[in-house]
Amino acid sequence: MTDMLVKLYRLPPLEPIIAATTAQNIAIRRAIAPEKHVVLDWVGEHFSPFWVSECEVAFSRQPTSIHVAIFEEKLVGFGCYDSTALGFFGPTGVDEAMRGRGVGAALLLACLHAMHQVGYGYAIIGGVGPVEFYERVAGAQVIPDSSPGVYAGMLRPQR
Fold first, then answer.
1. Which domains are seen in the chain, by residue range?
2. Residue 16 and residue 22: Cα distance in Å, rounded?
3. Per-position b or e across 18-57, b if 16+ CB within 10 A of its CB
4. What distance in Å separates the CA atoms of residue 10 and residue 20, rounded to the nearest whole number?
5. SS3 for 126?
6. Are 5 and 135 in contact (CB under 8 A)?
7. Are 55 and 78 in contact (CB under 8 A)?
8. CA–CA dist 37, 40 (Å, integer)
9. How far is it, in rounded angstroms, from Cα 33 to Cα 19?
10. Count of helix runs (H) and strand runs (E) in the chain
11. Helical packing angle, 103-117 and 15-23, nearest 10°
12. What is the mean pLDDT of the chain?
């Protein structure tokens, strides 16, 4: 999986996509420390233990570098930045039942705007899956010869 580069100074505005999710009763906001156990359990159940580790790092920052999506008082998505490496967006994930409603795009843009607000000019999206999604939502561009990138040599569980 390749990495992508995003120009944070050319992001689409955040407000319209937040308004669109809010109209569906989906809240997008920065997670707070007392929610850590809820978010980590959910990420572990729906995604990957590797992503749980990255989310733990996002919760260790002040303010946290993790945004969440909430629908009917339940967690339905998350997005992190500055977890695996500074200047990196990810991981991010949305409950399968909530996909196609703009939640992933809202989480992505919320995180990227937060990164720009603290002074980043660019962000790297590491090890992307849906290249077209990141191109469309954030104007991301593939970084040639970037796989496996920072993930090279990463430890895996022994079986």
1. 4-149 (3.40.630.30)
2. 10
3. beebeeeebebeebeeebbeebbebbeebeeebbbebbbe
4. 21
5. coil
6. no
7. yes
8. 5
9. 25
10. 5, 7
11. 140
12. 97
Q: Are strands 66-71 and 74-81 parallel, antiparallel or unpaired?
A: antiparallel
How long is the chain?
A: 159
Q: Are the CB atoms for 43 and 51 separated by under 8 Å?
A: yes
Dump pLDDT digits (tens) for 61-115. 999 999 999 999 999 999 999 999 999 999 999 999 999 999 999 999 999 999 9
In the structure, what pLDDT confidence band is assigned to residue 158 with cuts at 50, 70 and 90?
confident
Distance, in Å, from the CA atom of 105 to the CA atom of 122, rounded to the nearest integer, reads 18
Computed on alpha carbons and rounded to an integer, the radius of gyration of the chain in Å comes to: 15
DSSP letter assigned to residue 13: P
Tell me the percentage of the chain whose pLDDT exceeds 70. Answer: 100
C-alpha to C-alpha distance for 8 and 3, rounded to whole angstroms? 16
Residue with tokens 């390749």: 2
